[in-house]
Request: fold
Amino acid sequence: GVFRRFVEAGRVAYVNFGEDYGKVIVIVDIADHRRVLVENPTSGFPRQMYPLKRLALTSLVVPGILRGCRSGNLKKACEKFDLKAKWENTSDAKKMAKKDTRANLNDFERFSVMINRKNRAFKVRRLAKKILKK
Reply:
């Protein structure tokens, strides 16, 4: 396949491991092939070096960000780009939200999820059987 998500200044990523799991960041500068300088002034994530192994790159790129861009410029660019809204529309954000919702269910809600899944599977099987008979 052809690579489409490059490590570059302005690339939006999220932390996929560790205490900052799920936090959205923007790559500001590249230190070497393993570490990058990241920040997200809109969410309050401080500027710091981060290993690439702990980041998952997204398809979003904040336009107009040059290497080593200052925090103020990054904040303006993120607000102009409407980073928060665009992030919430990505499939990664939706998966994380679903995972959070599932993790915070009480016992009855987990039971309801199980029953709904069983009912859906039954309906799918019944429909598949009907289609195969034709």
About this structure: The mean pLDDT is 96. The longest strand covers residues 24-30.
